[in-house]
Design goal:
This protein is mostly helical. The protein has helices at about 5, 10-15, 20-35, 40-60, 100-110, 115-120, 130-155, 160-165, 165-170, 180-190, and strands at about 20, 70, 75, 75-80, 85, 90, 95.
Length: about 200
């Protein structure tokens, strides 16, 4: 067997000078999918799109500029498909990232990394409470992103129905966050039916 043949999937990619930015993001998502036992479905695709858009937005910030070997930007403008205005940002298909810098940045943002990637950037300690808090934050954002999509298609859906929906339970990690009404609180924060009422005006 050749030396290359002895390398694991992740070790193989660590031999590369650059990664395509889109591919790098999908590696993070695929590892999260593997850790949680997700299976491909329409709900899974929604979770993946939210994850992709979330990291794209973060990578467009100034604190991520150092991760790029080649940085390409996409132009902002009106998107005919989503009928929304898209802000200019990083073009992940045309950009490349430096593995070391990208992995350090992703770890600091709280994203889960395979053992090989953590070892590559010198992370050997056990997961800390801080990382647990960061993971909760990511779970909350993914869960809320899926909830917004579900409410777009089912505007009358009640929170109790949303809590039990497969997309929330599996791909939004709802089954891990049912304690102390945590999941219901997350959903209520993005419930489009919620009406904020101010003080009644004096007559």
């Amino acid at each position: 067997m050749t030396d290359a043949g002895r390398l694991t999937y992740y070790e193989y990619w660590l031999t590369k000078k650059y990664w395509n930015a889109e591919f790098a993001i999908y590696m993070l998502f695929d590892y999260m999918k593997h850790q949680r036992g997700w299976e491909a479905s329409d709900d899974y695709m929604s979770a993946m799109k939210f994850f992709l858009d979330k990291i794209k937005a973060q990578m467009s910030n100034e604190d991520a500029e150092h991760v790029f070997g080649i940085y390409a930007t996409e132009f902002g403008g009106w998107d005919e498909v989503t009928e929304r205005y898209i802000e200019a940002g990083v073009d992940i298909e045309a950009s490349q990232v430096k593995p070391n810098e990208f992995l350090q940045w992703a770890y600091k943002k709280g994203y889960q990394l395979p053992y090989e990637f953590k070892a590559f950037i010198g992370i050997y300690e056990k997961e800390s409470n801080l990382n647990t808090k960061e993971q909760d934050r990511i779970d909350r954002e993914v869960c809320q992103g899926i909830a917004r999509t579900l409410w777009d298609y089912h505007p009358g859906m009640e929170i109790e129905e949303m809590v039990d929906h497969k997309a929330i339970q599996i791909y939004g990690s709802g089954r891990l966050h049912s304690r102390d009404a945590t999941l219901r609180r997350w959903l209520s924060e993005v419930d489009p039916r919620a009406v904020k009422r101010g003080r009644k005006k004096k007559i």
